[in-house]
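Notes from the 1:1 (GR / supervisor)

We went over the backlog. Supervisor wanted to see one worked example end to end before approving the batch request, so GR pasted a single chain during the call. The sequence is below; no edits were made to it. Supervisor asked that the structure be written out right there so they could see what the output format looks like.
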Amino acid sequence: MNETVTEATHGTAERRRAERLAVTLPARVVGEDGVRSAETVDISEDGVLLSAADFPPGTHVRLEIELAEAGWRSLDAEVVRREEAENGDDRLAARFARIATEGGRDAIQAFFEARLGGPTAA
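Structure output shown during the call:
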């Protein structure tokens, strides 16, 4: 795990309800076409922006993210957009399923509380 930034950033888009944390964590995207390695760019309690991973919007995937001390956690998610970063890399934005997946959402909430020093507002 390589945590590059632990500074919280407030969502600039009005559609974002949760605080985002710019952090690089190892991740995997599991879809019908196989597994692709990725890294987080930022993460919130509602979703994640990943570098790499080539899945079209609307695709339902399983995300596996290594949350530091909490270890690998799996969450069901839906790809909401693909974009190209300034460096030319593909990025994938995914929204976590509302239903907790194997404790994944609880683990993300605990990850945020550990980094930000208290519960986050939704």
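Supervisor's comment: The longest helix spans residues 104-116.
Batch request approved.
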